[in-house]
Amino acid sequence: MNSLDWVVLIGYFGIMVAIGVWSHKRVDNVSDFFTAGGKMPWWLSGISHHMSGYSAVMFTGYAGIAYTYGVTSFVTWSFPIAIGIAIGANLFAPRINRLRSRLHVASPLEYLKNRYNLPTQQALAWSGMLLKIVDVAAKWAAIATLLSVFTGISLNQGILITGAITAVYCTIGGLWADALTELGQFIIQLLAGVSMFVAVVIKLDDKNIGFLDAWNRPELQGHGKPLVGQYGAVFLLAFLFIKLFEYNGGMLNQAQRYMATGSPREATRSARLSAVLWLVWPAVLFFPMWMSPLLVHAQKPDGSDSYGLMTEQLLPHGLLGLVIVGFFSHTMAMCSSDANAIAAVFTRDVAPVLSAKARSWNERRGLIAARVTTVVFLGLSMAVATQVNSPTFKDIITVVIKWVAGLMGPIAIPMMLGLLRPFRKSGPTAALTSWAMGLLAFWLVNYPISWNVDGGVPLQYQVSIPLAVSLVLYIGIGFVKPEDTPERDDIIERINTDDDSGAAAAVPAPATAQDDVQRL
């Protein structure tokens, strides 16, 4: 990087902070901070949903997969995400929107204390928050890894810089700041991605390598196969189910985008836009990564530095700075949206249970608590990020695929399937049992069993078994021990219909945290 690249990078940081300051004026209460008051246009929600779904891990961990295996990086990652969101556009998006418009909640988990009970809500809230700390930590480590390639600064310095800038704009501006910065980040990434695509095409042409000829080169042998190695059919199917739940609300931040739109119909349109972007745009970003073995030799065994090395080699200064800004764009988009979602869960779902004072917060105190929680979450995730390459977490892609994908199912299944009528008989027993046994299955296949199997348990089973255990138990216990009640049925009906007559109209107001504490 030279002075021109630094100007681009610093200018980007300045714009992000300015957007946060401007968005601050639009945040008057907790609803504005967490769900934009339900006033976000569907197209902005869709772009925000897309941008908050991936980070610099794509340019490190998934760049390594693309460098090593080729197109399977797209087939087993962004393609199942696109399919999952497309399915969820009608299945989940309108129902999640009704959580805000019909039940008047500001956190995606807030409805669970009525749908199940308070212990279930707290179990999912605490485990979801802890998982998000690890997930976001991997994102900080990914962007810091790229920053170290370009600038030479240490991993911890990179984590501190990116985390501090993100904390400023997302803390003061809430979801509005997240969405507006994500719109700007999308435009930046569009320019950066196209620049890199063109640069690689030109470089291949200089080497007299055509697009079709490239796949026949020894360096790309086997790179055209959609499923290879540990990324096989079982992994693809497991990932499709995981992403169906995760990207439609299971990871909380995407649920907020659906809640922020003005109506269920707009939430559906938002999801469809995000699905199209996930189908098209990653292919543009992945193309240079697929061609990278022809242009660079990765220094790291997993190939995670290949994209960074390629940008340094191919792009002139100024454009190099723009691509680096693009790395920051994705990471800061995801991390800021995660921070906002976790702040919503803690402020609305956890704090009122822990503290009597929290149950009597007015709008001003609730907003202050939300901002403080955001800062604390970011600080914890940055601390964990310094340990990503430790023996506990191993490398970045291990954290993202094994930990996040493997643990997502047990947490998301009770939340997401609890929205749907066919699963109305699955109550607190089904939810808590499926959650607990899914977490136990994750631990067993990744540690005790893996230690006693030559070569360890294959990755596809590490991520699929916890999901399968949770899914079977949630559905099976619902049939064996049905716990549907008129009150729970009314909640489900209200989520599933826009009709204000009949059963939906009889739904009581959501119970307060104080009521639930008294029940315990």
From TrEMBL:
Pfam families: SSF. Keywords: Cell membrane, Ion transport, Membrane, Sodium, Sodium transport, Transmembrane, Transmembrane helix, Transport. Coiled coil: none annotated. Residues 497-520 are annotated as: Disordered. GO terms for biological process: sodium ion transport. InterPro entries: Na/Glc_symporter_sf, Na/solute_symporter, Sodium:Solute_Symporter_SSF. Its main location: membrane. It comes from the Bacteria. Residues 502-520 have a biased composition (Low complexity). PROSITE patterns: NA_SOLUT_SYMP_3. It is found in: Cell membrane. The keyword Transport applies. GO terms for molecular function: symporter activity. It is a multi-pass membrane protein. The chain crosses the membrane at residues 6-22, 42-68, 74-93, 136-153, 159-176, 183-202, 227-245, 275-298, 318-347, 368-388, 400-420, 432-449, 461-480. GO terms for cellular component: plasma membrane. CDD domains: SLC5sbd_u1. Belongs to the sodium:solute symporter (SSF) (TC 2.A.21) family. PANTHER family: LD47995P-RELATED, SODIUM-COUPLED MONOCARBOXYLATE TRANSPORTER. This is Sodium:solute symporter family protein.
